């Protein structure tokens, strides 16, 4: 039984839509594996350290004094003045803060899944400008407590060294906790011998070695914050409220410098914490540039287009050569194209995405070439179809490798294919082609 061309085209389109089922199942598997990958990152962070945020250091001087207030006497009903002791603190931020950090990345595996753990080392240097009495104004019964220096670290489990403070030529050992509501986690060092009677500049240095996962952020609390980070990671993602003033990256690593003056940040919000403070933090995230699940997901989204183009080429061949193909043959070829994306995912978990793509492509081309050789019974046509599929796979890899230009390259590819079909069939009599009793001869190509 022969079908008219419109009916055959509808049947082929129906088969293509039917193959959306295995393609959707493959995308579901990719999503599930990607979710497992994210769970692995969470587990590694739980065992090592979470993404780190450094806030400080802050020089805090606690004090108490009596303040006068007016209250109503409950017995006499008269208003009277009373003195009440109030606890306050003077918080000094560095006038200048510098952090020169070297980042090292290592991969941690849990089964087939892996994530990145970083280690940043380097000194935090700076300068406090302290007034006499710490800038505390005289008051009634003023009592100055023990000053301390506080350093916020979002996950102190990531501290790898015995952190010490070098201040005025003396070393001081840090203790756990910040003694502040914000930042609430971190370290502090008491400074009972700090002379507050005279104004002077206090230079300090804190050697840091901190481990974390995914990202490293800092808070620009100083009057001028300067940060220089470099490491062997090819795909840094700069995040937060401030972009680097200078940055370079390559396959060998990256380097980034930030310079943030006090006019660019809101110190009051930074010291309060919350969403307003977090919005001003800046730093870098270490994202895997070759996430096999994201690349497999992007590849699978092109699966239906692959099937449509291949079925369209077969249908066009039927019209040109007057040699009909059975729907089962369409279905088998479509299944081979759909299984390619599942094969790509499974191989990439063991071989990496580039090698897995090459192996899956060669395997699929070999299978389709052997099958088409028997179906078409024409070596030239078999080589032509197999070569066309090879070009499609190569084009797909180009789209995946160039994410920024994927839309442009995909549009040009579709335009080129459509132009080829239109030019190749511009002399065809589609009315005769639609009549199963009058099959047209193959048109001659004009140059």
In short:
The protein has 447 residues and is of the alpha+beta class. It is built from 11 helices and 17 strands.
Task: Give a structural overview.
The structure is a single chain. The chain has helices at 5-18, 20-47, 267-272, 275-278, 292-300, 303-321, 327-351, 353-376, 379-401, 406-424, 430-434; strands at residues 52-72, 79-92, 96-110, 113-130, 140-144, 148-153, 164-167, 170-173, 175-176, 186-190, 200-213, 215-218, 224-231, 236-240, 246-250, 253-261, 282-286. With 447 residues, the chain is an alpha+beta fold. The chain folds into two domains: 5-37 and 293-434, no CATH class; 51-68 and 81-289, Immunoglobulin-like (Sandwich), CATH 2.60.40. The strands form two sheets. Strands 1, 2, 5, 6, 9, 10, 12, 14 and 17 form a nine-stranded mixed β-sheet that branches. Helix 2 (20-47) runs parallel beside helix 7 and helix 8 (353-376) packs antiparallel against helix 9 (379-401). Residues 442-447 have low confidence and may be disordered.
Give me some keywords for this one.
single chain, 447 residues, alpha+beta, Immunoglobulin-like, 2 domains, eight-stranded mixed β-sheet, 11 helices, 17 strands
């Amino acid at each position: 039984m022969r079908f008219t061309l419109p009916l055959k085209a509808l049947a082929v389109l129906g088969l293509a839509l039917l193959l959306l089922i295995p393609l959707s199942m493959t995308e579901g598997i990719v999503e599930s594996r990607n979710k497992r990958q994210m769970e692995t990152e969470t587990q590694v962070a739980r065992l090592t350290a979470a993404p780190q945020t450094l806030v400080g250091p802050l020089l805090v001087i606690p004090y108490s004094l009596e303040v006068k207030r007016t209250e109503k006497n409950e017995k006499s009903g008269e208003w009277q003045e009373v003195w009440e002791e109030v606890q306050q603190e003077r918080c000094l931020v560095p006038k200048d803060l510098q952090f020169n950090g070297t980042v090292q990345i290592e991969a941690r595996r849990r089964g087939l899944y892996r994530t990145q753990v970083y280690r940043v080392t380097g000194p935090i240097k700076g300068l406090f400008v302290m007034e006499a009495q710490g800038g505390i104004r005289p008051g009634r019964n003023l009592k100055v407590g023990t000053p301390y220096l506080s350093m916020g670290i979002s996950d102190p489990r990531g501290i790898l060294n015995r952190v010490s403070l070098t201040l005025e030529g003396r070393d001081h050992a840090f203790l756990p906790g910040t003694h502040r509501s914000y930042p609430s986690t971190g370290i502090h060092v008491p400074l009972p011998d700090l002379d507050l009677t005279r104004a002077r500049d206090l230079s300090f240095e804190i050697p840091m070695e901190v481990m974390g996962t995914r990202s490293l952020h800092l808070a620009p609390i100083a009057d001028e914050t300067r940060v220089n980070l470099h490491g062997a990671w090819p795909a840094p993602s700069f995040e937060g409220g401030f972009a680097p003033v200078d940055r370079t990256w390559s396959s060998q690593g990256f380097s980034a410098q930030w310079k943030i003056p006090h006019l660019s940040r809101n110190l009051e919000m930074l010291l309060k914490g919350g969403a307003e403070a977090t919005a001003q933090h800046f730093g870098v995230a270490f994202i895997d540039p070759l996430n096999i699940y994201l690349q497999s997901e992007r590849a699978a989204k092109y699966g239906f287009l692959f099937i449509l183009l291949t079925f369209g080429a077969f249908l066009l061949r039927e019209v040109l050569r007057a040699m009909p193909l059975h729907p089962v043959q369409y279905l088998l070829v479509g299944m081979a194209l759909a299984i390619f994306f599942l094969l790509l995912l499974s191989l990439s978990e063991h071989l990496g995405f580039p090698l897995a793509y090459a192996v899956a492509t060669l395997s699929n081309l070999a299978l389709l070439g052997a099958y088409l050789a028997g179906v078409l019974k024409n070596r030239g046509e078999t080589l032509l179809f197999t070569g066309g599929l090879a070009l499609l796979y190569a084009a797909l890899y180009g789209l995946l490798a160039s994410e920024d230009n994927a839309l442009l390259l995909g549009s040009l590819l579709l335009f080129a294919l459509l132009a080829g079909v239109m030019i190749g069939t511009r002399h065809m009599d589609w009315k005769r082609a639609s009549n199963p009793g009058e099959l047209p001869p193959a048109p001659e190509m004009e140059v």
